[in-house]
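ok so i was messing around last nite and threw this chain in just to see what happens. nothing serious, just curious
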Amino acid sequence: MQSRTVTVFAGLGAGVAVLVAAVAVLWPPPERGQTDPSLPELPDAVQVAVDEGGIATADCPNGMDWHTDGVRGEVVDLNGSNEYCATAGPMVDTTASYSVSAWVKLAVPPGKLAMAAVGQDGTNASGFYLQYSWYHGKWAFNWMEADVIDPADNVTATSDEPVTTEWTHLVGTYDAKTKRIQVYVNGVPGTTRTIGKPWRATGPLTIGRAKWNGQPSNYLRGNVDDVRLWTRALRPDEVVGLFTAPPAA
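result:
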């Protein structure tokens, strides 16, 4: 299966009001310029243009597909079994403040399946999981107590917002000063929880899966769009601004 790439923006300290206003194009497929079926297929990629910061490419080693959505346009489509995208290395320091957001549309009700929109690999576990948690039956932002097999004293911030197969905006934040994590769903704040000793996840940022007990896990079946990262904890009003901003044309 063809390897494909997506491009993810890391918003290094940019204010969301400025960030949203500066977005030019989010997740579009490239103009192929080829119609002859005898020619080799061009690899897919997406571009995210923003106010400041860097752009990282996430490779999709087992492939993925594009889906034309009536609400958000061209979005990444993942099969829930082995498709995901990953950067070459870590995108945030999980011992410092950070935020992560994504638009997600599940293809099926998750039930007993855990589905991760975004994570960042450690050796044995992800440093964070922005996901649907099967254990809690809710949207969640998870932190594992340590990068070990079967960590026990884990912390989960959850949301009481409904889990549906409609487009859902997820945000997870970590404030290193207070050691608190929080999840937001469609701009609505969920619980905040205080974590234990922070640890650094030094592996790649992953889209559409996480890592558990040293193995890839929590594959997402559905669509993902507009993944963003910040090296600070977003304020509630900034999260609302992200949720209410219209998709880029």
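not much to say yet. The chain is about 5% helix and 40% strand.
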